[in-house]
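Saturday, quiet lab. Running sequence design on the structure tokens for the scaffold JK sent over.
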């Protein structure tokens, strides 16, 4: 699950960044398809991780979804599933006749940001677990904690600059 949210989803969102994208010179259509593929891969990794963790807890007779990390992780996977379904509407905007494409993109970007922040929060809560704090100690723990924090700031800045500030200044 950490792979899904810390790497794949981050890369899927950075595809649209004019400063950091590996696909800067590609067309928007190609970027959308790569975003779609990476998000789908992230969702599949998250679902696989959720299944493995749940099965492992079941085998060891431990309760799951009782910690803040477990609950936010479950909420994040469910939210991401819904967000991916909403993203399909952007691939086929004619399905939503009463909505403009610009509004659909705005809602998808802002609700996607909420989902990404949920994923980062779940990662950070996992880093506060007993297992992680005994495995990763001293300065390494702080560096690990900085990773989702800093990437969330970068993604928030990207979405804000691409959709929120621009839309506000156009009115």
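Result came back. Writing it out in full:
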């Amino acid at each position: 699950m950490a792979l899904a949210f810390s790497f794949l989803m981050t890369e899927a969102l950075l595809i649209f960044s004019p400063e950091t994208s590996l696909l800067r010179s590609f067309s928007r259509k190609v970027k959308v398809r790569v975003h779609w593929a990476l998000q789908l891969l992230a969702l599949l990794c998250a679902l696989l991780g959720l299944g493995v963790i749940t099965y492992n807890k079941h085998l060891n007779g431990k309760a799951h979804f009782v910690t803040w990390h477990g609950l936010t992780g479950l909420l994040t996977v469910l939210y991401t599933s819904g967000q991916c379904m909403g993203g399909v509407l952007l691939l086929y905007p004619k399905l939503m006749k009463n909505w403009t494409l610009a509004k659909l993109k705005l809602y998808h970007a802002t609700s996607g940001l909420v989902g990404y922040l949920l994923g980062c929060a779940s990662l950070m809560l996992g880093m506060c677990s007993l297992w992680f704090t005994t495995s990763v100690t001293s300065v390494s723990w702080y560096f690990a904690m900085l990773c989702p924090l800093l990437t969330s700031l970068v993604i928030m800045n990207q979405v804000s600059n691409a959709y929120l500030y621009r839309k506000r200044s156009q009115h």
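Notes for JK: The longest helix spans residues 138-170. The helical segments are 2-14, 28-59, 68-91, 101-126, 130-135, 138-170. Ask whether to fix the surface positions before the next round.
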